[in-house]
Design a protein that fits this description.
about 220 residues, 5-stranded parallel sheet, phosphoprotein, Arc Repressor Mutant, subunit A, DNA-binding response regulator, DNA-binding, 2 domains, 10 helices, transcription
Length: about 220
């Protein structure tokens, strides 16, 4: 017979660069699994080391850290412990990013914008089943079967648009890009407008974030 959830001794890792997020999550976990052992870290590198050394069974990890994106360490974490269950807990929009993290090895994706009750339900689900997929993510997974380009919004861009988007992300302005590619400056402006429309963004900060998340990993 399976041990009831409240009696289990599970070793958790909470990896987030904001301690208040980790503390809040610890309260939720200890409420659901009172015997849980919980390690904290604010660094991706230390997250890998803790999984390797502390017998971590469940990890709740943010998507973004000052030293980069957690996407690229998911395979390392799974290699360190193939049975590790990973829940991404992040402010990044589910519809844009969830599939990418699940494809890289995450067992669930939970938005930091969720209500407290949803967070509690998600953690309970995650502990009981080893995964948490919201209705939004389930729906995305079904759509992904029919449309693999869903995994990166940048796949909507043409080769030229992607090339120009990358140059913007490197900090170049319209004139520099025009000179660099030997095209007219107003052509660059038109392409920029198309990029923004396709990616449904309003400014360069959002573009740089998308390029960093989806293209520079």
């Amino acid at each position: 017979m399976e041990t009831p959830i409240e009696n289990r001794e599970i070793t958790f890792l909470l990896a987030d660069d904001h301690s208040i997020v980790r503390q809040g999550m610890e309260i939720v976990i200890t409420d659901i699994v009172p015997n849980a052992k919980i390690y904290h870290t604010s660094s991706l590198q230390q997250a890998v080391e803790l999984v390797e050394s502390k017998g971590i069974e469940m990890a709740i990890i943010d998507a973004h850290f000052p030293e980069g994106n957690s996407l690229h360490i998911l395979p390392q974490l799974k290699q360190a412990n193939p049975d590790l269950k990973i829940l991404i807990f992040t402010g990044l929009e589910e519809d844009l990013y969830a599939l990418k993290f699940i494809k890289a090895g995450a067992n669930g994706y939970l938005s930091k914008l969720s209500e407290e009750e949803e967070v509690r339900d998600a953690i309970t689900n995650f502990v009981e089943k080893g995964e948490y997929l919201s209705d939004v993510v389930r729906n995305l997974l079904v759509q992904f079967v029919y449309n693999p380009s869903l995994i990166s919004p940048l796949s909507a861009l043409t080769k030229r648009e992607l090339q120009i988007a990358e140059l913007y992300a490197e900090g170049l302005g319209n004139l520099e890009i025009a000179n660099n590619l030997d095209i007219k400056q107003n052509t660059v402006s038109t392409i920029k407008k198309n990029i923004f429309e396709k990616l449904k963004i309003d400014n360069l900060v959002e573009l740089i974030d998308l390029i960093k998340t989806h293209h520079k990993i």
